[in-house]
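Entry:
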Amino acid sequence: LDELNHVLAPFHLHFAPDPATSNRATIGGMIGNNSAGTKSILYGLTIDHVLETKILLSDGTILNSKEFSVNGYKKGDVKFKDRENEIVIGLDTIIRKNKDEIVKQYPKIMRRVQGYNLDSFVNTDSWNLSKLITGSEGTLGIVLEAKLNLEPLSKSKILCVVHFDDLLAAIRAVTPILRHQPSAVEIMDEEVANMARKNLSIAPLCGFIKGNPKGMLIVEFFGSTEEEAKSKASTLVEDLQKQKLGYHWPIISEPKKQAEVWTVRKNGLGLMLGIKGDRKPVPFIEDSAVPLDVLPEYVGQILKYCRDREIVVDMYAHASVGEIHIRPVLNLKDQRDIDHMKDIAGYAHGLVKKYGGSISGEHGDGRIRSPFLEMYFGSGIYNAFREVKKLFDPADLMNPGVIVDPEPIDHNLRYGSAYRTPVLPTVYHYREEMDFARAVEMCNGVGVCRQNLTGTMCPSYRATRDEEHSTRGRTNALRLAMTGQLGPEGLTSRRLYEIMDLCLSCKGCKSDCPSNVDLARLKSEFLQKYMDDHGSTLRDRFIARSTNMARRMAGWKAPIVNIIQRSLPFRKILEWYLGVDSRRILPAYVRHPFNKWFKKNYKPNGQSSKKVVLFDDTYMNFHEPDVGISAVELLESCGYEVILANAGCCQRPRISHGFLRKARRKGEKTLRNLQKYIDEGHKIVVCEPGCASALTDDLPDLIDDEKLGQSMKENVMMIDVFLAREVAEGNCTCNFTSVFEHVLIHGHCHQKSLYGTDAMKDLLACVPGVSVDIIDSGCCGMAGSFGYEKEHYDMSIKIGNDRLFPAIRNRKNGAAVVACGFSCRHQIADGTGVKAVHWVETIRGREKAEAKR
């Protein structure tokens, strides 16, 4: 949907239904579900915007469905071919036979998508089979094409986020808020807010949340001008304050800040499912919608029913239309909770019928709500559903068991009481997730990894558009493998290796995924197991020892080695022998390594009381000493005495290629060397993002010494993050300068995942006359050695061409390209011919006079 609306935006149009899953929802899926979204109070449901459809039936017939007159058909003015004619005659019979029951039994609220939309064919001369297909969940046919109604984009939007100390008070406030004619009213409870504040990528967006609200209503207003929209919001706030509804009413007018609010709201589902352990917020009554006047009573009764059974409940969603996504937190590996699920479903759906609501308001019936349709509609209409199904799909080939003739809701569970979470020997400790299996089970299937326009996750899916190569596809494969469903080889099978192969270990999922699935870690664990059974390749061993190789090749040998590496014959030999693509040239070594430069040239002036330790990584020492020199000059210009760590390798190459036991053994030595500086009161700054992530994210969970690992997390950081914190805390008072007027920043994936790029941008933005932009570039495609490997070269370039390369080629004013990742800089050079620089090469500090006095 987002891709369609991205194309429509220049024409100031959009397809109006806007489900929270818009960054991966397909138009066919929206038609199948009859999706709605945040603004359904204004725009209605998908059924209100589907004009025509082309449908493939199970027998191969193609129906072209559009509006026609029933009277015209009966008079012979409208004609259909045999199969279509048969369907129209059959549907007419079904409608005439059940007309009174349809009028009586169908809910009278807007959010109603349960069963088939037979009510769209009652008391009207205008029929369109597209309305029957919409909401049929693929049970009648497959949507091949659709003609859609488009709506103009609003000229101006304003948000007001109303905070409440009581959740039910927030729900009761919806009715008075609707008198102000908003375009949307969405609710979030305290659990969603708390999870958002803990999420790596979502937490920075939560600045609009004040205190610890039990519930928040996100109220949106449209206007022909910003003043008009803002006036509506201001009037609302005055009214709420008079009625003493809420305790905080921020009005948000800046588009960027509004987008942040909606990002938090849209990630509500994934955030809730990201809780650790076996208990998860389960969707089975989450799609019920009831009339607004009974919404507080309905929600209150559900909450009481669950709390009486000591069951926690999470909720969010569309307060404006009486649809609150209520999810009881259950463990569906436990039979007691499975029984609770059945009891709660029966109770909740009974309430929905009593209040004249709909048990499905936008998500569809599926296998979880279809068993309750006969209870809701009665046998007459339910048999009519069976007749509709038989009319379109007599062989029951299309999504059987949905809407009609379903199995009970406790059948076909992903887990179930017979499921046993396997306990597997691992190298990582998985301290946060509990164990490897539960780290895999953190994937809940919401599919954010299938987004294509923004974010980092998932580069291989963006390039292939293949579910197998998404984060969700890989975690599903791991789950099936560890439970024996992929054959006897399980976690060491060649098939699983192929599925994991295109994972770039970018860690984009660790931040972009609402559940923070870290597939890079899971892949490295898998690779260790795979190598235990099958052995390692020569190329993997070569890459794992690249630090030792660099140490030997740098120095007096470097000029000779570099000439050899650049030669085509050598590259061809390397391709044949190691599988390193001959279109790549290995990184050049330097004659004068950085650590030797530092020892020879760096002389602290002895006047600074501030000291910081610089982690000298392999790339800095033996490939690009200019990065290290620039880092020293930057830190010194900010008033710090620099100490060179000389602590050893971070073990990133070994970690990424699955040599985890060696990485743990050697990495612990590196961490203990760094701890000596920390014990003296110093912070450790790192220039290479892959090293920073190894030191603060991977090694702490590999080693047994949990206290040592925690110390790394607290005291080791990227150099830009360190300086930004020092400035914020008043420890560094600098006037920053830059040699560039325009800077374009590409963030390394690990950097974006763990730290973000705001620190780089904010410090450069302090420099007068410097413009800074951050590319929403995703992964560059190199990913360490991935882009050098022959079988991955084309994929690597394709990923770079997705967003990064075009952004660099189209940059304005000859902007300097900044990339902190060593592999990112090489990928940019290979893909665009542009020489990117490290951030430390763009900025210098000059201590203010008052700081020296």
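The mean pLDDT is 94.
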